[in-house]
Amino acid sequence: AHVITGLCQDTKDQSCVEVCPVDCIHPAQSLDGDEAYEAAPQLYIDPDVCIDCGACVPECPVGAIFMQEDLAPEDEKYIEINAAYYRK
Ligand code: SF4
Ligand code: F3S
Fold first, then answer.
1. Which residues line ligand 1 (CB under 6 A)?
2. Can you give the three-state secondary structure of the chain, one letter per residue?
3. How many whole angstroms separate alpha carbon 22 and alpha carbon 50?
4. CATH fold of the domain at 2-85
5. Separation between Cα atoms, residue 50 and residue 33, nearest integer Å
6. 43 C-alpha vs ligand 2 centroid, how far in Å?
7. Mean pLDDT, the chain cut into blocks of 10 residues (88 residues total)
8. What is the pLDDT, as a whole number, of residue 72?
9. Closest residue by CA, ligand 2 atom 2
10. Which is the closest atom of ligand 1 to the Cα of 57?
């Protein structure tokens, strides 16, 4: 799967959300605002749904998204951090 790293934090640009063909990037902010979005430090990719299409990668203005296998060692913790969001 692809993974969103901590670079997303403070930016939460959401450009990635719109391009994902399987809608597996959450939480996103609705037009009315969204509590889950406001509370989340960053967005997360659902590893069970992501099809590794790569469409989200070039959309992110801060380069926060990586293929799991391409993560820097210090960012490997985000594999679990992304997955954990969907176990809530
Ligand atoms: Fe969605 Fe594709 Fe990005 Fe996976 S790689 S999160 S399927 S846009
Ligand atoms: Fe975050 Fe980049 Fe998406 S900042 S919300 S991973 S476009």
1. 2, 19-20, 22, 24-25, 45, 50-56
2. CEEECHHHCCCCCCHHHHHCCCCCEECCCCCCCCHHHHHCCCCEECCCCCCCCCCCHHHCCCCCEEEHHHCCHHHCHHHHHHHHHCCC
3. 7
4. Alpha-Beta Plaits (3.30.70)
5. 25
6. 7
7. 97 98 96 92 98 98 98 98 94
8. 98
9. 60
10. 3
Give the pTM. 0.96
Q: Any idea where the domains of the chain sit in the sequence?
A: 2-85
Report residue 80 as tokens: 């679990």
Q: Tell me if 64 CB under 6 Å of ligand 2.
A: yes
Residue 62 CA to ligand 2 center (angstroms) comes to 7
